[in-house]
């Protein structure tokens, strides 16, 4: 038994030595963690340094860091992305103001569930504020939106799927689209489901347009 333990120890030492050579570690795709900033007196994360601005507002059970994968993909497409920690309309407006002050003339607003609702509340009060909207699983229909292009994404079997359809049908402007995905994933949970690639592909195509 003792001989077996010694043999195992030797084998383990060989494996460790082989893994600790001078070879470069495998690439992990770079550091995708957002930079911590302050917006309107609150915390936020920022990715990228592109010409186009995007503000992200998370759902109630999420946080700013939950957008990391999506924010990285959007930033890689040439945008400056800010995810606010406080998803109040005031905080979202402050993030838009920061991007405008930094020279970004066009700013899109993207939110999931409670974040989408906060964006709708803000834009119904300031309809000319965003360049476009991308909203996942909004929970309520509002009036007073502007003519900016709008993309509504929801799952066809979630209870609030009809809200996205109503918003797309009733909002002003000529470019209001709705995508109803199979299943019942709500808000940012869509990015954890089987329709994640389809949703993200549509988002990136819209933001690039």
Strand-pairing-aware structural class = alpha/beta
Q: Estimate the global geometry from the Cα principal axes.
A: globular
| Main sheet: strand order | 1-2-4-3-5-6-7-8
Mean pLDDT: 87
The gyration radius over C-alpha positions equals 22 Å
Number of helices: 6
Order of H and E elements:
HEEEHEHEHEEHEH
Helix content: 25-40%
Major pleated sheet: 8 strands, mixed
Strand portion: 15-25%
The end-to-end span amounts to 68 Å
Poorly predicted runs: 1-31
| Total strands | 8
Description:
Helix 3 (89-101) packs across helix 4. Mean pLDDT is 87; it is low at 1-31. The protein contains six helices and eight strands; from the N terminus they run H-E-E-E-H-E-H-E-H-E-E-H-E-H. The chain has an eight-stranded mixed β-sheet with strand order 1-2-4-3-5-6-7-8, with helices on both faces. With 209 residues, it is of the alpha/beta class. Helix 4 links the parallel strand 5 (107-112) and strand 6 (132-136).
């Amino acid at each position: 038994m003792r001989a077996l333990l010694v043999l195992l120890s030797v084998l383990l030492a060989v494996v460790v030595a082989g893994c600790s050579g001078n070879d470069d570690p495998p690439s992990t795709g770079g550091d995708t963690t957002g930079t911590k900033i302050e917006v309107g007196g609150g915390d936020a994360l920022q990715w990228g340094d592109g010409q186009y601005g995007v503000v992200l507002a998370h759902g109630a059970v999420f946080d700013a860091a939950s957008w990391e994968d999506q924010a990285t993909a959007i930033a890689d497409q040439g945008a400056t992305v800010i995810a606010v920690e406080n998803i109040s309309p005031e905080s979202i407006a402050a993030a838009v103001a920061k991007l405008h002050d930094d020279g970004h003339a066009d700013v899109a607003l993207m939110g999931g569930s409670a974040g989408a609702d906060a964006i709708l509340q803000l834009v119904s009060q300031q309809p000319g504020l965003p360049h476009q909207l991308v909203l996942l699983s909004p929970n309520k229909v509002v009036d007073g939106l502007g003519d900016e292009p709008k993309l509504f994404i929801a799952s066809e079997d979630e209870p609030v799927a009809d809200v996205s359809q109503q918003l797309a049908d009733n909002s002003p402007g000529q470019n209001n689209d709705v995508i109803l995905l199979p299943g019942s994933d709500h808000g940012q949970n869509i990015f954890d489901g089987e329709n994640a690639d389809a949703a993200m592909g549509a988002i990136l195509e819209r933001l690039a347009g």
